[in-house]
From TrEMBL:
The keyword Metal-binding does not apply. This is Carbon starvation protein A. It is found in: Cell membrane. It comes from Blautia hansenii (Ruminococcus hansenii). InterPro entries: CstA, CstA_N. Pfam families: CstA (PF02554). It is a multi-pass membrane protein. Residues 3-142, 164-291, 318-445 form the CstA N-terminal domain.
Amino acid sequence: MITFIIGLVILFVGAALYGRFCEKVFGPDDRKTPAYTKQDGIDYVPMKKWKNSLINLLNIAGTGPILGPIQGILFGPIAFITIPIGNIIGGAMHDYFSGMICLRDGGTQMPDMIRKYSNKGVYGVYQVFCSLLLLLVGAVFVYTPGDIAATQVFGFDGAATSVSTWVIYGVIFAYYLIATVFPIDAIIGRIYPVFGAVLLFSAIGVFIGLFVQGYPLVELWDNWNGPLVAYGDYFGENHFIPVFFITVACGILSGFHSTQTAIISRTVKSEKEGRMTFYNMMIVEGFIAMVWAAGAMGVYNLGLQSADPALATATIGVVCKNLLGSVGGIIALVGVIVLPITSGDTALRSLRLAIADTFRIDQTSTKKRLALSAVIFSLVAAILVFAKMNANGFNVLWRYFAWSNQALSLFAFLAISIWMFEHKKEKFVWMPLIPGAWYAFVTITYIANAKIGFNIPWTGAYIVGVCAAVAYVGVILWYGKNRAAAVK
């Protein structure tokens, strides 16, 4: 377990250092936050730091930091190092600056942030892209918790033809509607502490169980090809870059997170709470990803579960029940179910807010919020039915979700870079540009090669990816310098 422990040290020590550095660069002060200046009792509501932090964690941590690492650990123990490094300099930095800029700018949503720090063309592309992603998130985060609950908690078959499957989906949908429409402190602010307790039991319980049970983990310096799992062969044959960084997704970086941190920017009491609320909660998600990567590797090495990416959902149940027993395992499974549900509800809430802000649709009355939500939920339901009724429907849905999730972060990194130029912090622009350039390469290379994309051979896809990354950095530097000169 030495590599795993080294990874955890990198994660927590690196977070303490780089998180403080991010805070210093941004410069939080004592100005009144939008929670007070725009207080409306619905979306702009002052809430305590611990509650904001917990809500933000539950908002951002869906099934990505569990299913992603379970599949990504097949690339071997290198995952225990790349997850924390990427999380610290990429994901957590992305979440912190996205949340803080939206907070400083009056509790704006991400579309407004993109509009302010780019141009109409980029903003238009982002609006379409973001709306589609949030619809996909809504559908995925009904599908995955619904199926886990049906098959591993209640013992149903989870089939598309079973009434029980659609009843469970319907219950989740009903909760999403309530959480989307009613004031944030009336539903989310009250129920999330309970969800948070179950989540923490799940993550910490699995973490402790790894050591108590003595799960066998492969070290970086070991032979990666064991008797049951050939991690080395998988690493060599499946293009670690870019496939690993698309697969693991949320444990390292998620563009979806910026849409969620913007929601919390409307309930934060002080800018100085931002590092805990935004940066550190992404670090906690990285910890969750590390724990589940280790748990999956352990059950694969013990032969308790086949190392098949298609069986990632089943692996969750095996890890929970083997480490925590029947009762503890069920509680841990409930914690896993909580993650996507508490991301799906706020994904649809943020989509409602973004559409309302864009088209200036008044949301002060319940009737108007219900009317807009009805349109959104109808679209999500249609996507869900397609995914469930088609044999390969969910695989297609998940692949588009994973890729678009990472690609969305490029817009946030762009906006953060331009914000730095406009606020005389251009010497720090390398902070968003490094992960931005990396993920421009990763996402473009992946979609260029993928069958759901352009199906270009790998050599050509890599060339396209490199060109895209260079162009991404070049355009941002050019545009940023022009914007900086214009505000002087």
